[in-house]
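step=predict obj=Glyoxylate/hydroxypyruvate reductase B n=328
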Amino acid sequence: MRPYIYITRKLPADIVQVLHDHYEVGMWDKEDVPVPKDVLLKEVKRADALLTMLSDKIDSEVLEASERLKVVANFAVGFNNIDIKAATERGIAVCNTPDVLTDTTADLTFSLLLATARRIVEAAEYIKKDLWKGSSPLFFAGHDIHHKTIGIVGMGRIGETVAKRATGFDMNILYHNRTRKLEAERELGVQYSPFNDLVKQSDFIVCLTPLTDETENLFTREVFQQMKPSAIFVNVSRGPVVDEKALYQALVEGEIAGAGLDVFEVEPINASHPLLQLSNVVAIPHIGSSTIDTRITMMNLCIDNIMQVLAGKEPKTIVNKDWQTVIK
């Protein structure tokens, strides 16, 4: 009997053809709707491999329902949707897609910073509504980026790449991370800063930290109140890193100038969400890595990882390095 692979979101036929050539393949038939939990529980029961999205919760219930699962290939760098401990205990390899989306996400991060600072979305909507009848000295005046201070919270691969982009704008670059990045300090001229100092000194605070127990609700009302009134906050990491009610209050009260958001506490976000009612918020639907080239590369990496594990080999990008293959 050929191994069975279940894919939790509809992918292009030409991408998954290589799997059809070697395995039995099942796939959820919708591109933008998560697979229902009951369907996932049914499919995982006979699956040898799962190709999952960040929005799929692969918890202990799902893992316990599996009878021969060997690998979960997550279509993302993050893996907070997967119970890593439970997977490792069952000898299930968990794979992700690091590196391949670094530049793409850094580009998006800086685009969001620029769009928020220069009020691009607000101005574009203004002209589309045929409201442009004239100008004034401060007509849609935004904030300069060049020569300003950017504070990067989370100096991983993407953070370092954002810092490279910032050097092109002659920015003063601060960063906060669990560990010092001495090589980045030497090569990019970035400066390590304690978290509280960074939020006080920065004109732009960019959040790129992973979601952990320590970083959940890292950005509270107290933190926003420490920022400059002219500061702009950008989040391209995970929604729960931010207390959204606190962010809303900070924006309404003028404690910060604006926010650029690619991620939210609950996704997809509803159009009635209070943050979406504010003109000084630029909100986009979690598209940090969404270019055709990068997404196809991510798909292929997931497929490569699955094929490696099912062939009894080490996958290219493993999260739980202490996993052991278990024959079920």
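step=describe
The two ends are 14 Å apart (CA to CA).
step=end
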